[in-house]
Structures are given as C-alpha cells and as structure tokens.
Amino acid sequence: xxxxxxxxxxxxxxxxxxxxxxxxxxxxxxxxxxxxxxxxxxxxxxxxxxxxxxxxxxxxxxxxxxxxxxxxxxxxxxxxxxxxxxxxxxxxxxxxxxxxxxxxxxxxxxxxxxxxxxxxxxxxxxxxxxxxxxxxxxxxxxxxxxxxxxxxxxxxxxxxxxxxxxxxxxxxxxxxxxxxxxxxxxxxxxxxxxxxxxxxxxxxxxxxxxxx
Amino acid sequence: xxxxxxxxxxxxxxxxxxxxxxxxxxxxxxxxxxxxxxxxxxxxxxxxxxxxxxxxxxxxxxxxxxxxxxxxxxxxxxxxxxxxxxxxxxxxxxxxxxxxxxxxxxxxxxxxxxxxxxxxxxxxxxxxxxxxxxxxxxxxxxxxxxxxxxxxxxxxxxxxxxxxxxxxxxxxxxxxxxxxxxxxxxxxxxxxxxxxxxxxxxxxxxxxxxxxxxxxxxxxxxxxxxxxxxxxxxxxxxxxxxxxxxxxxxxxxxxxxxxxxxxxxxxxxxxxxxxxxxxxxxxxxxxxxxxxxxxxxxxxxxxxxxxxxxxxxxxxxxxxxxxxxxxxxxxxxxxxxxxxxxxxxxxxxxxxxxxxxxxxxxxxxxxxxxxxxxxxxxxxxxxxxxxxxxxxxxxxxxxxxxxxxxxxxxxxxxxxxxxxxxxxxxxxxxxxxxxxxxxxxxxxxxxxxxxxxxxxxxxxxxxxxxxxxxxxxxxxxxxxxxxxxxxxxxxxxxxxxxxxxxxxxxxxxxxxxxxxxxxxxxxxxxxxxxxxxxxxxxxxxxxxxxxxxxxxxxxxxxxxxxxxxxxxxxxxxxxxxxxxxxxxxxxxxxxxxxxxxxxxxxxxxxxxxxxxxxxxxxxxxxxxxxxxxxxxxxxxxxxxxx
Lengths: 212, 642
Fold this sequence. Notes:
The complex is a heterodimer of chains A (212) and B (642). Chain A has 212 residues and is an alpha/beta fold. Chain A has helices at 3-36, 74-89, 116-122, 136-140, 175-183; strands at residues 61-67, 96-104, 127-133, 149-152, 158-162, 192-194. In chain A, a hairpin with a 5-residue loop joins strand 4 and strand 5 (158-162). The radius of gyration of chain A is 22 Å and the shape is elongated. Residues 208-212 of chain A have low confidence and may be disordered. Chain B has 18 helices and 16 strands. Chain B has helices at 24-59, 73-95, 100-120, 129-138, 144-164, 167-170, 179-246, 267-272, 284-287, 291-305, 352-418, 421-437, 440-471, 484-494, 496-499, 519-541, 597-608, 635-641; strands at residues 4-6, 16-18, 62-65, 68-71, 250-255, 261-264, 312-320, 326-338, 341-350, 480-482, 503-509, 515-517, 548-557, 560-567, 612-618, 622-630. Chain B has a 5-stranded antiparallel beta sheet with strand order 6-5-9-8-7, sandwiched between helices. The radius of gyration of chain B is 57 Å and the shape is rod-shaped. Chain A binds chain B through residues 13, 16-17, 20-21, 23-24, 27-28, 30-32, 34-36, 68, 70-73, 75-76, 103, 105, 107-108, 135, 146, 165-167, 169-175, 199-204, 206, 212, and chain B through 59-69, 72-74, 77, 81, 84-85, 87-88, 91, 96, 101, 105, 108, 112, 115, 119, 122-123, 161, 164-168, 170-174.
C-alpha cells in the first residue's frame, strides 16, 4: 500500500468515525429530549369537583392518579405510586384514600383496558381502581396525560397536581415524588405542581375540543 | 524470547543466524487473537441489537394518545439507533479485523449499547451490569487501551447524563455532581483486574508466540533438512531408476490376488516392442503373454501367491508383441506380504537368445553324439549286411544250381513221358551228373540256414534303424508321456558300439508308468550317461582282457521314476566331484569329449523336468548316476519348467 492510498484510507476511516460519533451523540440528544420533555399541563382544579363520581371521604386526604392502560411510560409512575402507598400504609393512622382511574373509551373493544398496568394496581392494598368511561373523570380533574397525580386534602382543596417521575418512563427519586411525600406529612401553603411524563389520555384530534 | 532468521535455505549447509529480538510472532498472534475477538463482537453486537428490539417490543411497542396508537419511540430507537451504533464497528470488523481502530470503535459501541439497554429498560439499575460484562468482554482483546477507551466512554456518559438526565443513570433526579466519579471508581476497580488479566494474557501469548517461534524455527530447520534429504533421495531414486531402467532386466510388481501390475518397468516396451496402453494396472496374462502360456502362467502365479512368503520360483514363458514376434522370457518371482496385501515381485529377462543358443548347443551336442555313434552304428549295420550279402550270394548260386539241375530233370521227365527210353537214359545221366556237379545236397542243406541268417540280419538292421529313429525322435515342443524302459533299451542299441568292446550292458527294468517328459532330451541324457560309463570302463580295462559292466536299473519310488546307471569304471576323484556337472568341464582327451554331456544332462533333468541327478562313486569300484524324475510335474513345476 503506497502513501497516498494509506492517506485516503485514513481519511475515510476518520470521516466515517467522526460521522458515526456525531450520529450517536445526536441519537443520545434525541433520546434525552424525548425522555425529559414533560407534557403541557392544563390549569389546576383547586377544589374537588362536586360532580366527580369518585367518592371522596371528607377529612381524609385523597390521591387520584389517572392512567392510560396501554401507556408504557406509566409503568414507572405506578412504581412510584406503589412506593407512596407502601410508605403511607406503614404509618400508624393512614389517612389516605387512593384512586387509580383507568381510561376506558367506550368505543374500544372489551378487554382493551385489561393491561399489565391494571394487574399491577389491582395488587395494591388500599387503592381503588376506577374505570373512567370516555375520560370523564380525567377531564373533570384537567388530567390530560397518563401519570397525572392529584392530591386533595381532607377539605377537598388541591395540594398537588403533576407527575411523580423525573423523566419519561424512568423510576427514581424526583421532584414530584418528593413533594407528594412531603405533602402527606405536612400541610402545604399553596397547591404545588410537578412535571408529568406520559401518554396523552385523549385522542390527538379531540384534544382541542375536549372530547375523547 | 529466542528468535532467529534462516539466512540460507537453498544451501545444503543451512546457516541459522541469531537476529535481534523481534515481536513479530507475538504481534501476529495478538492480531489473530484480536481478529477472533472482533468476530466474537460481530455476533455480540448483532445479538444486542436483536435484544434491544425484543425489549422494546416487549416493554414499549406502542405509544398511545387516547385510543390512537403509534410505534413507540423506544422501538424506533432500538431499530434505527441500534443500527447506527452497530454500523461502523461491524464494517470495521469485516473490513479491518484486528486493527486498533476497530477494537476501540467496538469498545465505544459496546458502552453505547449499555446506555441504550439501560434506557430501554427504564433505567433499571440491574442493566448497569451490562457495562461490567462489556468490559470483561473487551478484555478478550488483550489490549488495556481498549479498556481505557471504554472507561472514558462510561465516565463521559455518566458525567453528562448525571448533569442533564440523572434519572437515566442514577435513578434519582437529584444527586451530587461527583456521583459519576463513584461509578467510574467501580469501573476502574474492574479495569484494574481486567488490565492485569490483559497483561497476563499478553505475557502468556508472548510465551506461546515464543514457543511457536522456536517451533517454527525448528520446523524450518527440519523442513530444510527434509528438503535436502528428499532431494538426495530423489537423486538416489533417479539414479537407481536410471540404472534399473537402462538394463534389459524388467522389474515389476503385481497384486497377488488380481495379478494386475502395480509397477512395470518401462523397458518392457523397449525390450519387447510392446505398444498400446500402459500395462500397469492390467492383468498380467491379458496382453503380453503368449496365448499358449497364459493359463499355465496364471496358474503358476496363483499357486505362488498362496505359497509362504519369500518363496521364489523361476518361470519361463513366452511373450508376444503386436507384430506376433515371440520372445522367450524368464521371470524370477517371489511372494511378499505388506500387511494384508500380497505382492508378487519379480524380474523378467529376455532369454530368447539364450534359448536359441541352448538349442543350438544341444543340437550340436546331439550332432556330436550322432557323429560319434555313426561309425558304431554303421559297423553294427555292416555286420548283418555282410552276412546277409554272403547268404544272398550263396542263395544266388544255389538258385543257379537248382535251376540247372531242375532243367535236366525236366528233360528227363519229358523223355519218360514220351516213352523215349534212350533219351530218358541220357537225360537221367545228365541230371545225375549235374546234381553231383552242382553239389545240390550241400545246397539243400545250407540254403535254409542262409535264409535264416538273412532274415536275422535284416531284423538286426531293422532294430538298429528303429532305434536310431526313436533316438533321433523329432523334438517335441510339448511334454509327452514316454515309456522310459523302452527309451533305455533303444539308447543301449544305438550306443552298443560305444561299449561292446569294453563292457557288457545289463538291465533290470522295473514296471514304470508312462512318464511326462521331453523324450528327445531324456534319450540324450541316457546316451550321455551310457557313453560316459563306457568311457570310464574303457579307461580301466584298456590293455587288458577284462571287460566291464554297465548296469541300468529302473524303479518306481513313490511318484518318481528312479534310474540308476552303474559302471565298473575307476570312479570320480573327490576333488572333481563338484565340477563334473559344470559346462565344458571334462577329464577326457581332446576330441573324446566336449564337457557338455553331464552339464546338459543336469540341465535337462533339473530345469526341464524338475528332477534331480545324483552321483554315487567309489574310487576303484565304479560310479552310479541316479536320475529321479517326477512322473507328473506339478502345475508350478510345469510353469517353472516350461
């Protein structure tokens, strides 16, 4: 192999490596952007909606998480919820009622909502699983995204609204989780928010008009 | 490490010169090992890609928006970003295996796979073990620099993700900035072990390479010597081949079972002018052997193939080329065993000229015998012819006398018939006178004896002529059955003149079956024996009134005919007993013998009839030649005798 041929080979190899590295860095950037971009949240619902079919017990803190039964990202949210429930059930006087509201569009075939997420929640003690036909309850609580958790105090005032994962589909200590934990032991001065990561609960076309 | 270069491989005196220590064998070995590891990573990278797609399909196949679903970003990442991660390392593995760039790119790709798999499994802390597994795998390269690259990649990944996306790597949204150092420390901890393993691996590879270099050097030396020896062997083989193939002797080898040539020296074509396809591989009797000898030769060789190893025979037969030219050949054949395979190996000679000379010599010897016998036979015939002549002369005269007297008596008879008394008286007187005058009584007395002598003489002549005819029996080309007793009597008849003045011949002939032999040759042997006996006796009785005795006895013993020819000569001195059968050896005076008699007798008995001829002798008493002939020669014998 002569010198010019060797040089050309080196040049090609260098160019290929550089392009390759640029490609993989770009890929990392895309992945991180996907994982770290939270959903846009609607305005807060400061008091418990009176027309909600969920039975809130006065004087008890009520936690509601809205879940899309097929959303892979919500697996992490449920994992964090399990942790909260488990921690709370260990206290001497548990004063938390928890609902997990599963989206159940009436137009979808029967069994569509029967997912691993539903199975997972079904095993949690002290959690009520509620089927939300056509997303009515979600709309009452302005929950647009799977994984949205709202927390109301005993008077029905909003304490927290947002997600309890730090990024999309990933478990681990995060801001939302930490705030919920704190709120369960101390009363807040004002409603708090946290970013939420998950699948939209409504169809893309219906999101603007509020229908499913 | 010991290394050497071979500076001269072409010279027989190969020199090995010590060279500076070189790492070429180690480099080569490491390059091969790293290329093998590249191939391992080729499969691993593809497997990881498939795993990533499988994880994405299992955990997050779709992204949902209400009732609408779309392919999940994770699945797209697994397929396309996984392909992007693999494309460069796979290309380098295929195109440039074993090179540093390839393994460093592989190291980066492997850490990227760790990051991607962690991401796809939702940041599970257990998936971090993939990093440690990858480092261990990368250690297969036996290159600590690759571990450094991988480690730097891990550190960079943790550092940047720790800053911008800590959940994906630490499982918490908030952590200390130096957390990546803790992770890096564990990686470095493993690196220390793996670097040590790499260095040990390289050391071990160096030791192996060193041994391989030594072995290669040794191998080169041995190869050189083998080449040298092979060249010498080839030269020797070539020389040997030239020697063997420049002679007229034709060595060959054939399979004993199939009788097919495994080797036939090329001079077969030259000597015999045999053309056509190579004879090697063909069956021996197919093309070259004279049709009349094929079956016999085949039988002979098959018999030999079953004989014990190293059994050797001589086998004479004829070879015929395409021009119908016939050669007499002699093969000396022996049987050999190599493992389970039996081989017949032999050398074939063209003995056509020898045969012709033998024939001429035998003919000359026969002519010599005939010439020697001619005088005696003439004398033997002359004596009866003489007295036949005398008797016939007498009978002629008697017939004239009888005619004259009978004429007178007829005249007398006519006169008596006619009644002419006077004439009858005269005629009677004349007849009586003539009877007396012609001595008719004498004639009548001796004429029958003369006739008997004539007949006896004629019979004696007839016997001699018949004996000569039988003795001079035309040569039979094939063996035929012969009455040996009759042959002995015949030979005694024609040789009578050789011994009758010095000896008396006596025979004691037992009952013999017909013997398969060549009659002309056996007659010649008997004649030579009788003439030798007569000469031996003559040497003893010369100048005396004594007569010797030739005694011939025949007996059948087992399957052999035994002929004993004894004489009362002076015996054979001990010092020449081993030489008497040698050609041209004679103790007789010049002109009395050529020294061929006993040599030919032995040749005929031994070679042509596979019998034996022995001598018993005692000085001053006489000698006895004992000839033993098999009644029926065996097939092998026939082959050997032909």
